[in-house]
């Protein structure tokens, strides 16, 4: 089992999205908005929305099976599963349910929450276990069903989010390391910019003792603040990861950002002096799928043959927390 000092390679990917598609035209019938407003401000046209039979675990299992198959291994080869999500089917965690669904019965599975940064945080976490030689094969999942927590009367947020799942397989390799650099950050002083928070009510229990009962409230967001934060911090995070990797913008083949807003992706590319043609974007089809957005866009680009083995990818997630992160890796 011990393989200390191993490098890692990302050898498989997969993704899944619910069948139903919610268009900008549909949204214009629900709130006061228009296709023109949504597409010009965000780049979004459609998003996939889960019905009550399409659980986060089931979508994730499909993505995992595809990733395992592309990597050429079997579910019982998997040692570690990390599920990045803010919307588990079960607040105790959904990773072990996914483990059972795919039959990865040798693995240990747990959830990690870092909102839209979750996939990159989970990828970096998984690679640490491989670098130290503890595990050889890890499955990293980014999945969210944020439509469960959207206020469908709030046009500021309901037009933005969609549902989906994506997964990658990371494997130990004896020589070289295809994770070239990374960076991770959080700033809790800006926590109030983006929330899906629990609201409690006091409930008498016995004598002088009260307990609380409540539920999570729909997503609230200060869009302008998050926009400014992303355009400011994401280039910095990628710059730091490039520095660790001893790379410059000219070495990057693909910019793979959290799909929150096409304007954010364009502004980040401009700041980094990376041509727009190198941005991997599928935001028009999926909207913001939170932790799923990066592996979903990666999987599509790999299956379309755009991303090829050996290509250098600069990925960056950002979102609630606030959190942000970057990972630079060679595909395949
Ligand atoms: N349709 C029509 N008008 C709208 C809509 C809508 N859907 N939503 C807002 N408006 C209105 C506003 O009410 C406002 O009207 P007013 O000027 O009369 O007050 C006007 O449009 C402009 O609103 P802004 O908020 O200034 O619009 P902006 O250009 O900033 O775009 C957006 C809003 C798209 C949300 C942008 O700020 C953004 O993308 N922010 C970043 C979001 C993000 O990156 N999130 C990532 C993390 S997600 C996570 O972690 C879970």
Task: Briefly say what this structure is.
With 332 residues, this protein is an alpha+beta fold.
Provide structural commentary:
It is a single chain. The protein is α+β, with helices and mostly antiparallel strands. The protein folds into two domains: 7-177, Thiolase/Chalcone synthase (Peroxisomal Thiolase, Chain A, domain 1), CATH 3.40.47.10; 180-188 and 220-330, Peroxisomal Thiolase, Chain A, domain 1 (3-Layer(aba) Sandwich), CATH 3.40.47. It has ten helices and 15 strands. The strands form five sheets. Strands 1-7-6-4-5 form a five-stranded mixed beta sheet, with helices on both faces. A four-stranded mixed beta sheet has the order 8-15-14-13, sandwiched between helices. Strands 2-3 form a two-stranded antiparallel sheet. The longest helix is centred in the last third of the chain and has 23 residues, at 223-245. It starts with 6 loop residues before the first strand and ends with a strand. The model has no long low-confidence stretch (mean pLDDT 97). Bound molecules: acetyl coenzyme *A (ACO).
Structural domain tally:
2
Structural class comes to alpha+beta
User: Cofactors and ligands present?
Assistant: acetyl coenzyme *A
**What is the arithmetic mean of pLDDT?**
97
What gross morphology would you assign?
globular
**Secondary-structure element series:** EEHHEHEHEHEHEEEEEEHEHHHEE
CATH hierarchy: architecture of the largest domain: 3-Layer(aba) Sandwich
Measured by DSSP, the beta-strand proportion falls in: 25-35%
How many beta-strand elements? Answer: 15
Q: What is the number of helices?
A: 10
Biggest sheet features = 5 strands, mixed
Q: What proportion of the residues is helical, as a percent range? A: 25-40%
Head-to-tail CA distance between termini: 23 Å
Query: If you consult CATH, what is the topology of the largest domain?
Result: Peroxisomal Thiolase, Chain A, domain 1
Oligomer: single chain
Identify the strand order in the major beta sheet. Answer: 1-7-6-4-5
């Amino acid at each position: 089992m011990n393989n200390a000092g191993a490098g890692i390679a990302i050898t498989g990917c997969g993704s899944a999205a619910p069948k139903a598609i919610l268009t900008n035209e549909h949204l214009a019938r629900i709130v006061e908005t228009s296709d023109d407003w949504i597409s010009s401000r965000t780049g979004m046209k459609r998003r996939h929305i889960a019905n009550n039979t399409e659980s986060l675990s089931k979508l994730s299992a499909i993505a995992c099976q595809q990733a395992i198959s592309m990597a050429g291994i079997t579910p019982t080869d998997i040692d570690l599963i990390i599920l990045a999500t803010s919307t588990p089917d079960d607040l105790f965690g959904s990773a072990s349910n996914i483990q059972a669904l795919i039959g990865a019965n040798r693995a240990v599975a747990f959830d990690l929450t870092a909102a839209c940064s979750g996939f990159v945080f989970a990828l970096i976490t998984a690679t640490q276990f491989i670098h130290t030689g503890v595990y050889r094969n890890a499955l990293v999942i980014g999945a969210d069903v944020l439509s469960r927590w959207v206020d469908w009367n709030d046009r500021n947020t309901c037009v933005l989010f969609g549902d989906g799942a994506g997964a990658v397989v990371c494997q130990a390799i004896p020589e070289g390391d295809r994770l070239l650099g990374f960076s991770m950050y959080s700033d809790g002083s800006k926590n109030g910019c983006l929330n899906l928070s629990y609201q409690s009510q006091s409930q008498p229990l016995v004598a002088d003792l009260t307990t609380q009962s409540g539920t999570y409230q729909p997503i609230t967001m200060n869009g302008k603040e998050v926009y400014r934060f992303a355009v400011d911090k994401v280039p910095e995070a990628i710059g730091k990861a490039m520095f660790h990797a001893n790379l410059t913008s000219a070495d990057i083949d693909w910019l793979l950002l959290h799909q929150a807003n096409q304007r954010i992706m364009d502004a980040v590319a401009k700041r980094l002096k990376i041509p727009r043609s190198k941005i991997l974007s599928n935001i028009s089809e999926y909207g913001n799928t939170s932790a799923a957005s990066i592996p979903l866009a990666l999987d599509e680009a790999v299956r379309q043959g755009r991303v090829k083995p050996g290509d250098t990818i600069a990925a960056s997630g950002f979102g609630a927390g606030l959190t942000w992160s970057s990972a630079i890796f060679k595909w395949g």
